[in-house]
Every structure is written in C-alpha cells, then in structure tokens.
C-alpha cells in the first residue's frame, strides 16, 4: 500500500515537471494540480479558431470576457487580434488565480486598455473597474462626448491601481479624476459633477440655470478638488451643514439678485424678499457682495447652536441610572413634590438633608393633603441622592421639629437658607434600623393641623 502511494506521488511530480508552466520560475506551479493548470497551446488553438466568439476566454475561466466577445464578435475584432499577442500572459494569470483565488478580484492594465479601445466610448472599461456610475454615463453620452474617453487614455493606470488598492469593506470615496471629467464635460452645465458628489441642491440649481448661466460651471473648474475633498469628508464623518464662502459667492453672482445665496444660508425670508424685489432693486445685492463672509459666519454659528442637544425644562433625562430632570442650562434640577424638580438657581426656602443622604432618624414620613409620598423607609443601606422638603414661607411646617436637647451621639447638622436659621438637629448615624418607627395616618393628620 505504501509503495503504491509513493509511486502515485512520483507520477504526479513527473507530470508537474513536464507541464507547460514548469521551470519558469513560478512558485505557484508547485501548488497547482496538474489537472487544473491551463495550457498555452490549448488556449492558442481555441483563440485562433473561435477567438472572435470568446472561446479562449471561456477556457481560461474568464466568463465575463467570453460573453462580451461572443456578442461583440471579439470587441469588433480588435480584442481578438490583441489577445493573439498576449495569450501567454493570459494563461499565466489564470494559473496564478487558480493557485490564489484572491487574485480574481484584481484588475490588470492590459484588460482595461483592451476594453477602452474601441468600446471604452460606451464605458466598458469603467464597468470592468467597478465604476457603474461612470459606465452608465459614458454609455448614454458616448464617453462624455468623447472627451472623457480621451482623458481615460492617460488615467487608466491610476484607475486600475485605485481599484486594486480598494478595500471592499471601506467607504466608497469620490475620485478627483472622475469629478474633473464630469466638470469639464458639457454635462457640467447641467450639474453632473454635483450629482456625482452628492450636492443635490447645487445639482438642481445648475440643471435649471445651465450652470448658473455658465459662471458657476467655469468657477467649478478651478475648485473641483476642494469640492471632492468636502464630499469625501461628508462620507467619512457624516453630513455637514457647514456653509462655505465660495459656495455663497457662486450663488450670489449672478442669481443673488433672486436671493439664491440667502436660501443657501438658511435665510428664506430674505430670499423671498430678494426674489420679488430683484435684490432690493439691486442695492441689497451689491451690499451682500461685501458682507457674505459675515453672513456665512452667522449661518454657521446658528447651525452649530441648533445642533447642540438641549433638554426642555421639566423633561426627565437619564443620569447615573436614575431619572433626573434638567434645566435649560443642562444642569439637573432639585427634587420637588411633583417629581420633575425646580430650577437649581432658585433652591427651596428650607431644605433638610442628612449628611450622608439617609433619612434622619426619628422623623416620620411626610404626608401632604393631596398626595402621600413616603409610606415606608427604604431598606437598610440604601443610598438617597437627596431628601428634600419644601414649604411656603409663613406656612406651618408639615412635620414636627423636635427640640434640641443637646444630647446626641456627636453628629449634628446646621444650615441656613435664605436667611432662615435652622437649629442644630441631632441625627442618628446608626443605619442598622430595619423597621420604621411607629406611624399611623392619625399621627400624620395631627401633624398637619395648625
């Protein structure tokens, strides 16, 4: 049995040594099974006879190219002729992809150039490089009226490099080259570059005004790199409502007479006023030419302020695991009978707290005429954030204040609030009490009597 296994291994090694890809310095030849390696001879036979129908591409597991050659008769014969010269390269690439399947997602320059001429005018090379948006645009506009197609002759190496270095898990950023093609082409008059960069507002403004009568279109030639940078920042960090001075000036001339810059700066009333008065008879429009930087600064300041999280007064928010109300300043409010709190800037006239947040020993729970708030003492060791009692000045206290006997365990609390002196009160720090003191509803009602 062992001899038969050794014999099979020797036959496999001899077969690999005689394979067309052996002894060419390719390390992958030692890892690819003989039955799966592709032969240059077989590829040439299929390419010469049926290459116009893509037979050699089907053999080399390039199904997409095979289908494309079948319906375009070998890219109108051009791709068929080029493949006769690059057949060994195609076979070597296929064998590498068999050894390392990760290489199948990589593009190569030769394929991109084969698709660029002549079918690149229909965007075939962009579809190959996973740029479907540009592919559809080239298909509908014949390579952006031939201009984009000619520019791609020089930028195909960078497009291939960008495709190969792209991580599928990363965000799809905008390309400066693609934005330049959209901007310089006549479609830029219709806002194609703004559609590409996600500036929908500017895109429709350009579409209905033919690039702001061509002025904005020409200005965009010189600031397209800045626009791409802003679009990529928005993709990375989320939408940004920041306004920019250059955008405001582009809208100010000449359509600022209709208030476009005011609409952009979130000043709709001024925009409507300029629209019906033709920029305040042109006077307001001229003045805005000097004060646009200030208007942009104010718009960004207001946008920043509105973007802050503001909790309405009295609305409970979650803080440290307990519901706490918040004031307009964002600070928590003091406790009150309603449970929603009062503003911390106006504390209650009289507050009695234990030093450690525990209820004072010897005090009964408080019962108000309209609602009873405490019927039981909390379990031993439970921490209160605060225990507050509020009453109106001049009204009788809702609880009995025991006289100060001077006898205590040495722990006292003394406080003064709004000129009201509170006598030093003894309290017991022994927290071992588990049962509340005797209490009845009759005692509570007697405490409320004047």
From TrEMBL:
Subcellular location per the Swiss-Prot or TrEMBL entry: Membrane
Q: Which UniProt keywords apply?
A: Membrane, Transmembrane, Transmembrane helix
Q: Which Pfam families match?
A: TM2
Kindly indicate where the leader peptide sits in this chain: none
Question: Which residue intervals define the domain TM2 in the entry?
Answer: 37-85, 112-154, 174-222, 248-290
Report the superkingdom from the record: Eukaryota
Q: Where is the composition biased (Polar residues)?
A: 406-431
Membrane topology value: Multi-pass membrane protein
Q: Which family does it belong to?
A: Belongs to the TM2 family.
Which PANTHER family does this one have?
A: BETA-AMYLOID BINDING PROTEIN-RELATED (PTHR21016), TM2 DOMAIN-CONTAINING PROTEIN DDB_G0277895-RELATED (PTHR21016:SF25)
Name the chain's protein. Answer: TM2 domain-containing protein
């Amino acid at each position: 049995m062992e001899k038969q296994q050794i014999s099979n291994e020797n036959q496999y090694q001899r077969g690999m040594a005689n394979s067309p890809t052996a002894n060419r310095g390719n390390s992958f030849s030692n890892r690819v099974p003989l039955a799966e390696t592709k032969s240059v001879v077989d590829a040439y036979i299929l390419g010469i006879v049926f290459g116009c129908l893509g037979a050699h591409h089907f053999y080399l597991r390039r199904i997409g190219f095979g289908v494309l050659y079948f319906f375009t008769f070998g890219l109108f014969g051009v791709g068929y002729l080029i493949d006769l010269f690059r057949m060994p390269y195609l076979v070597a690439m296929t064998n590498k992809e068999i050894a390392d399947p990760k290489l199948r997602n990589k593009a190569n320059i030769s394929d991109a150039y084969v698709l660029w001429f002549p079918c690149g005018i229909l965007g075939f090379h962009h579809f190959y490089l996973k740029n479907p948006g540009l592919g559809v645009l080239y298909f509908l506009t014949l390579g952006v009226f031939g201009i984009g197609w000619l520019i791609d002759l020089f930028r195909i190496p960078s497009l291939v490099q960008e495709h190969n270095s792209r991580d599928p898990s990363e965000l799809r950023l905008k390309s400066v080259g693609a934005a330049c093609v959209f901007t310089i082409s006549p479609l830029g008059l219709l806002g194609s570059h703004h559609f590409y960069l996600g500036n929908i507002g500017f895109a429709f403004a350009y579409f209905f005004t033919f690039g702001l009568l061509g002025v904005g279109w020409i200005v965009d030639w010189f600031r397209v790199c800045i626009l791409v940078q802003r679009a990529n920042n928005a993709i990375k960090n989320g939408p940004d409502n920041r306004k920019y001075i250059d955008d405001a000036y582009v809208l100010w001339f000449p359509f600022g007479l209709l208030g476009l810059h005011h609409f952009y700066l979130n000043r709709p009333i001024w925009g409507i006023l300029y629209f019906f008065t033709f920029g305040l008879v042109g006077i307001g429009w001229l003045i805005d030419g000097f004060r646009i930087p200030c208007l942009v600064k104010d718009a960004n300041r207001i946008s920043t302020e509105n973007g802050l999280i503001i909790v309405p007064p009295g609305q409970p928010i979650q803080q440290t695991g307990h519901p706490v109300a918040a004031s307009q300043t964002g600070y928590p409010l003091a406790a009150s009978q309603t449970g929603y709190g009062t503003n911390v800037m106006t504390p209650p006239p009289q507050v009695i707290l234990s030093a450690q947040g525990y209820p004072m020993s010897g005090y009964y729970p408080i019962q108000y005429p309209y609602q009873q708030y405490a019927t039981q003492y909390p379990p031993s060791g439970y921490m209160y954030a605060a225990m507050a009692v509020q009453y109106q000045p001049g009204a009788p206290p809702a609880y009995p204040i025991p006289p100060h006997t001077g006898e205590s365990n040495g722990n006292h609390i003394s406080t003064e609030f709004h000129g009201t002196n509170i006598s030093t009160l003894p309290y017991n720090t022994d927290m071992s009490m588990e049962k509340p003191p005797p209490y009845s509803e009759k005692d509570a009602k007697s405490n409320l009597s004047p």
